[in-house]
Amino acid sequence: MERLEDIARATAMALQITKSMGEGDAAEMNEAMLRLAQERLFAILVDEDPEQNPWDIMPKITKAVTDLSKTAVMQVKMREDMKAKMVAKVDAMASGAGNDKKIRRALKQVREEIYGL
């Protein structure tokens, strides 16, 4: 029963954190969750007095680590793809601005302050 209460509490906390985060923070949240899951898996492996023999659940742990690694790689690739698309759009807008210094200055500010490029 205590375990179910812990899960319910953790779920409620995760929901509150998700609600408080902005749209752009989803990647950071996913990355934090990956790191937390990795830490928990590591703790299971080094636990001196485990509830269950880690070798009995090793196939599940191995699959979880593999899935987490794949997810982390996919997130990095997605982030790089999005950054490349943003750079291309801002560059296209700058090309369309011609020699208009005000527009170029505004786009430079967008590139640096909003997109962090």
3D structure, described in words:
It is built from four helices and no strands. It is mainly α and 117 residues long. The protein has one domain (24-114). α2 (26-46) packs antiparallel against α3 and α3 (58-96) runs antiparallel to α4. The longest helix is centred in the middle third of the chain and has 39 residues, at 58-96. The chain is elongated, with a radius of gyration of 22 Å. The model has no long low-confidence stretch (mean pLDDT 77).
Gist?
By secondary structure, the chain is mainly alpha-helical.
Low-confidence sequence ranges:
none
Q: Specify Rg, calculated over alpha carbons.
A: 22 Å
User: Which structural class matches the secondary elements?
Assistant: mainly alpha
Number of helices: 4
Biggest β-sheet, characterized?
Answer: none
Shape, per Cα inertia axes: elongated
The helicity comes to over 70%
- Average pLDDT confidence is 77
The termini sit apart by 50 Å
Topology:
Layout: H1 2-20, H2 26-46, H3 58-96, H4 101-114
Helix pairs in contact: 2-3, 3-4
